Amino acid sequence: MIRINEHYTKLKASYLFSDIAKRVSAFQEAHPEKDVIKLGIGDVTRALPTACVEAFHKAVDDMATEAGFHGYGPEQGYAFLRDAIAENDFKSRGADISPDEIFVSDGAKCDTGNIQEIFSGDATIAIPDPVYPVYLDTNVMAGRTGANNDGRYEGVVYLDCREENGFIPALPEKPVDLIYLCFPNNPTGTTITKEQLKAWVDYAKENRAIILYDAAYEAFVTDESLPRSIYEVEGAKEVAIEFRSFSKTAGFTGTRCAFTVVPKELKAWDADGNAHSVHALWNRRHCTKFNGVSYPVQKAAAAVYSEEGKAQVKGLVDYYLNNAAIIRKEMAALGYELVGGDNSPYIWINGKCDSWEFFDLLLTKAGVVCTPGAGFGSCGNGFIRISAFNSLENVEKAMARIREALN
Ligand code: MLT
């Protein structure tokens, strides 16, 4: 009799964003006359930058010729893209990352979910609360946690992010092995300073831990004093893996391209205390389970680094940041305390009531979809997250409806 992986039975029945999508569909079926504006899942709505579209078209045309055809590419990504990433995203900001430390993939969701499998099954994990659910759920699937009691899994070191600590978690009180951090943060939209990040890097060094740093929203950092990469902090190459994505930066949620940086210095140990290269482990995994991102998509992604591409990406980011500023202003005027939205596309709002109740209220009274904070962890209860990823027109319409519903 084939048995299931019983760790899956510890998970909530469905993934947060699928759960929300189901509730919204049910509402729309029951009220087909209502127009619903989605400010829930962080899915971009604007067209791809023209520079990316042109490169994409050209690469498809290449594929139609014998001379320009590409079959399997290097699993880690084409040199033209890895070189452009290393130069523009890291070297130009003083972070010494070389192209062969970059692994191109089809998404930061997959990479942040898959990375845990190269580490020991009994590694202790530290996970912020609230958190992007992928980090936690994939560790539950892998059996690194016990049962879920009252919304928290046994065996996980939760890093509480609350108003009292400015949503920046304190260092764990006991040693941990893997630490998940995400800045600009999903879901709270908060950012971290270089000094605060340095404390985590030092902690990881002292404890021989590894930081899994999700920087998928770095393009939204406009405050130049803030780090956009953990490698801007000295010594981080010895202790951190960084995840990046073109999804939110350049509108690639439907096109799929991202990358993970695994520095060559990074070590993890076996049971006998021998050090192993984490880069070699991830490379082994990547080559075994992944055949690379398609050539046209990598060409489209590389165009992000052309002069036109940079200007167009900045235009996209500024557009969503303007939406975020409107959401902040409107919700603050209604008397809500909030964070995020200035260096981030997400605004985290204290609704002062049950998150799902607030979610239902906005959906039924205003026809606006948000994400209930409780879906990101127990510290998220009482909060909702509003995403700035929609058109300016829809954001203005949504805010007018919310004003009317809540006033
Ligand atoms: C979110 O809304 O948190 C993100 O869009 C989810 C994701 O990127 O997978």
TrEMBL record:
Catalytic activity: (2S,6S)-2,6-diaminopimelate + 2-oxoglutarate = (S)-2,3,4,5-tetrahydrodipicolinate + L-glutamate + H2O + H(+)
Top-level taxon in the UniProt lineage: Bacteria
Names of the cofactor(s): pyridoxal 5'-phosphate
Pathway terms, separated by semicolons: Amino-acid biosynthesis; L-lysine biosynthesis via DAP pathway; LL-2,6-diaminopimelate from (S)-tetrahydrodipicolinate (aminotransferase route): step 1/1
Any single GO BP term: lysine biosynthetic process via diaminopimelate
Presence of the UniProt keyword Transferase in the record: yes
GO molecular function per UniProt: L,L-diaminopimelate aminotransferase activity; pyridoxal phosphate binding
EC number(s) per entry: 2.6.1.83
Span of domain Aminotransferase class I/classII large: 34-402
UniProt-listed CDD domains: AAT_like
Keywords: Aminotransferase, Pyridoxal phosphate, Transferase
Name of this chain's protein: LL-diaminopimelate aminotransferase
